Amino acid sequence: MLQKFLILNLILNLSSSVFAQRMVSISIDDVPNSYTYQVFGYKSSLLYTLDKLQIPVSIFINEGLIYKTDSVCKNFEVPNEWAKRDFVTLGNHTFNHTTYSDVGFENFKIDIEKGECMSREMTNKYHKSLKYFRPPYNDLENNAE
Prior knowledge:
By secondary structure, the protein is of the alpha/beta class. The protein has one domain (about 25-140): Alpha-Beta Barrel (TIM Barrel). The chain is built from 6 helices and 4 strands. It has a 4-stranded parallel β-sheet. The longest helix is centred in the first third of the chain and has 18 residues, at about 1-20.
């Protein structure tokens, strides 16, 4: 655990000195990672470390991942465990992790809207907003709209 903290600290120090930045954004895609949780357990060592350090992070939720394993009920708990923390900001990462250039605008829009049903409930429950979206693979096919 200490080793992870020291590596993170080194990265933060190097990035601030090399690029003269005063801020770093930490974001985590594909929450919940239901396959990993099913294999390694539902207690996240990363979340445990963030609890201790109170480092602000953004998570980008794929609600479709909840249904990818047999542990659907447990998988619902994972994003809630993240969302209830004050230092966690919620974001949408689509429902099915679709690629814009593969499905086009209309289907991508549907996947975005479907991907925020549970997230909207969590924002209400934990008094947060849902104002961030990250397209899977950062793929928007050079489409500014």
